[in-house]
Write a structure and sequence with these properties.
The protein starts with a helix and ends with a strand. The protein is α+β, with helices and mostly antiparallel strands. Helix 10 runs antiparallel to helix 11. Strands 11, 12, 16, 17, 18, 19, 22, 23, 24 and 25 form a 10-stranded mixed beta sheet that branches. It has a 6-stranded antiparallel beta sheet with strand order 5-4-7-2-10-13, with no helix packed on it. It has a 5-stranded mixed beta sheet with strand order 9-8-3-6-15, with no helix packed on it. The protein has 4 domains: 198 residues, Jelly Rolls (Sandwich); 113 residues, Galactose-binding domain-like (Jelly Rolls, Sandwich), CATH 2.60.120; 314 residues, Glycosyltransferase; 63 residues, Maltose phosphorylase, domain 3, CATH 2.60.420. Strand 28 and strand 29 form a beta hairpin.
């Protein structure tokens, strides 16, 4: 009978390889535990003596799973959930830590390895051979400590059979289900590690941003729910974990359930988590102690204290936000209190879902890098935070997981392993590189991703049933569109319409990208022209708000103004409300503003009744919801199935605030040239928007004062400023206008 290691070697031999930036250890070997520890996380240990005074000490580490490394009891770095999440069969990041200050004469290097994304049984609701394969993958570690002594002598301490392992205090850890930690466990029985037959050629240097601890939020209140349960409320939904600080007796038990919401009666609710247990169980030692999980994370606002030693106090609980180390670059503030809460929700939604991969949600048994969500939000994402490095790493995984025929999977890393592609989802392959180039001005991302972009367009050309259109596929359509037929998740917009429109856009973006980097794209340019002509012939009329918005956005309608007029009529006929889903919503306000309907766009933004952005704000949301009616008007939940309250896609409205309400747009990639044309609305009162670009800070602030609009503008580069339909060409500087 084959062991799980033999099964892995057989399966691994069938998988392709992709390297971007190879990493080579000098002498380290992959090691693993000699026998399975079941759910218990192994702790690998190496003790050593330094030969003299150390000038420098650097350790390189990666693992099959996630790891936590300590040298002489102190963490080697701030990286949480290292080595992060990549398409592991093809790419595994190696981290470098300078540990010079931690080295002493006698040393102990401890590295604990957990399942992480690598060996968790993701996805929660699915049963498949792929899922079983992932779950049975072995734990593994490779590390190398490079010492340089003051006399110039060098020493390398690498993972090999001289390393030992034991059971750690982490008795269980998994992405969906949480962590069990027993502080009374003492490592006493160490066994010799064994070599692991695992490839080296998939190792790459660290590419993405490190995952780190960010904001820390104290508990706002501890209260008793109507059903008698004890709950902790942090007042803000976050992604991360709770840090416990308490004094207890040995054996005292803390058992915590995590949730996003309270139900209509005010009781704890996490029925929307699916099969994810989201549990934290901690067995106390004697005395004062502090603990937080190290190998998992949760999406939560509320804690239910299923067990707790003594009377809990707010000071016992701190919520720690954990996400990629992205720097905030955008700032939004208005004179409208509820609009400001929406802005906060958008930023928190991005923080909560930019944990190494742009995920759809951070709490339930999913947490996947959905391509459709990423592409609709990437413009907002890149204005809110500096995500250039974050997306370049993810796009390299997309390229690695793209099929030879050009198919782009629905999620990256690809955990479904299905031969299926959807319009607007696979289009992340072209939209994301182009937007990263537009925001940051570095054409390298286009050069690196150009083959991937071309292969995606070529895939559509090969599989369509109708030349110069995309018909016959299996698509998500206008996902969660409010005009969906009863019982359907898909809006009423025609799937072939959406697919063909995105086919045209993809061909256009490949053409533009190729022209930037000096490639011959004449075939794609001609293809785009044919698609546009075929589209206009096949779809002379538009049936939904999304169809109108998409046709205008991608330049496919013969008369954009007439189509915008039609769209405005549809919105008014619907009671001045939107009916769009994931595909139409990101473009809706943009096309209205560009065609004379800015007041209507503001009306949609400021609407408070369902459906609207402010409906969730009125319901107490602190992040963006997956559904417009995640909580329905009667207070009940939309459904227990697929109902996330931290889902950033509809937060894409923020890029309209940047580009239309504040009027900040790049005239050249990277904001090397800027257009600032604010479009104010008295109902907002004031708006203050700024963006830290690659060329400096650009800001646009306007307010109404005594029936005059006063606008203050700062531009770091030569700019085109439009105020009250008058255009000014100005050099870098600060300006004020009164209208």
């Amino acid at each position: 009978m084959k062991s799980k290691y033999d099964v892995y070697r057989l399966m691994n031999g069938l998988r392709g390889q992709n390297r971007m930036a190879a990493f080579h250890f000098k002498s380290a070997q992959w090691i693993t535990s000699r026998r399975s520890l079941g759910d218990i996380c192994p702790l690998f240990r190496k003790t050593f003596e330094c030969r003299g005074e150390v000038r420098s000490a650097v350790v390189f580490i990666t693992a099959l799973g996630v790891y936590d490394a300590k040298l002489n009891g102190l963490s080697v770095g701030q990286y949480v959930l290292a080595p992060g999440w990549t398409s592991y069969e093809k790419r595994l990041q190696v981290q470098r830590y300078d540990v010079t200050s931690l080295v002493s004469k006698s040393n102990t290097l401890d590295i604990t390895v957990g399942r992480g994304w690598f060996a968790s049984p993701m996805v929660g609701w699915e049963k498949s051979a792929e899922k079983e394969y992932r779950y049975n993958r072995p734990d593994g570690l490779i590390a190398e400590l490079q010492l340089v002594y003051q006399n110039g002598e060098r020493e390398i301490i690498s993972t090999d059979e001289s390393w030992m392992y034991a059971e750690s205090a982490i008795r269980f850890s998994e992405i969906y289900d949480g962590e069990i930690y027993d502080a009374t466990v003492q490592q006493s029985r160490f066994l010799q590690a064994m070599p692991l037959d695992w490839p080296y050629d998939k190792l790459i240097t660290q590419e993405g941003e490190e995952i780190v601890e960010r904001e820390r939020i104290e508990a706002k209140r501890i209260f008793t729910a109507p059903n008698g349960e004890t709950l902790v409320d942090f007042g803000q939904e976050i992604t991360g974990y709770v840090e416990l600080s308490l004094t207890a007796k040995r054996g005292g038990l803390v058992r915590i359930s995590h949730g996003e919401m309270l139900d209509v009666n005010g009781n704890f609710y996490n029925g929307n988590y699916g099969s994810a247990k989201a549990l934290l169980i901690y067995t106390c030692k004697d005395g004062a102690q502090t603990y937080h999980p190290v190998h998992t994370f949760f999406g939560f606002r509320y804690l239910r204290l299923d067990s707790y030693p003594g009377a809990p106090q707010s000071c016992n609980f701190t919520a720690v936000a954990v996400y990629s180390n992205i720097r905030q670059t955008g700032y939004l503030h208005s004179g409208h209190e509820k609009l400001n809460q929406l802005f906060s929700n958008i930023f928190w939604g991005q923080r909560g879902n930019f944990l190494d991969v742009p995920t759809d949600c951070p709490q339930r048994d999913e947490r996947l890098g959905w391509t459709g969500d990423a592409q609709v939000f990437i413009k907002t994402a890149s204005y809110n935070f500096d995500v250039e490095r974050f997306f370049i790493k993810w796009l390299r995984d997309l390229a690695a997981d793209q099929r030879e025929n050009g198919l782009v999977p629905d999620v990256i890393p690809d955990y479904f392993k299905k031969e299926k592609a959807s319009a607007a989802w696979g289009d992340a392959a072209v939209i994301c590189p182009w937007q990263i180039y537009q925001t940051y001005g570095n054409a390298q991302v286009l050069s690196e991703q150009f083959q991937t972009m071309c292969k995606w367009v070529d895939y559509i050309t090969a599989v369509t049933e109708t030349p110069d259109l995309w018909t016959g596929g299996d698509h998500y359509g206008d996902w969660l569109g409010l005009d969906a037929p009863s019982g359907s998740y898909k809006g009423s917009s025609r799937e072939d319409f959406i697919a063909s429109a995105f086919y045209a856009n993809a061909a256009s973006l490949v053409t533009k990208a190729g022209e930037v980097i000096g490639r011959d794209v004449s075939e794609y340019k001609a293809l785009h022209q044919r698609i546009a002509a075929a589209f206009q012939k096949a779809y002379p009329a538009y049936n939904t708000q999304t169809e109108c918005a998409v046709a205008i956005q991608f330049g496919l309608c013969p008369d954009a103004q007439t189509t915008a007029d039609t769209l405005a009529g549809m919105i008014r006929q619907a009671g001045c409300s939107l009916q769009t889903g994931f595909v139409g919503t990101p473009y809706l306000l943009h096309v209205l503003s560009r065609h004379g309907y800015t007041e209507l766009a503001y009306s949609l933004l400021l609407r408070e009744e369902y459906p609207s952005w402010l409906y969730s704000v009125n319901r107490g949301a602190t992040t963006i919801w997956e559904h417009w009616d995640g909580i329905m008007e009667d207070g009940s939940f939309w459904s227990e199935a697929m109902n996330s309250f931290n889902h950033y896609a509809y937060g894409s409205v923020a890029d309209w605030v940047y580009e239309e309400a504040a009027g900040i747009r790049p005239l050249q990639p990277g904001f090397a040239g800027v257009s600032i044309a604010p479009k104010p609305d008295k109902r907002v009162g004031s708006l203050n928007v700024s963006m830290q670009t690659r060329h400096g800070l650009v800001s646009s602030a306007w307010r109404y004062e005594r029936e005059r609009m006063i606008c203050n503008i700062t531009t770091p580069v030569q700019a085109q400023i439009v105020i009250a339909n008058t255009t000014y060409n100005v050099p870098a500087g600060s300006y004020q206008y009164k209208v």
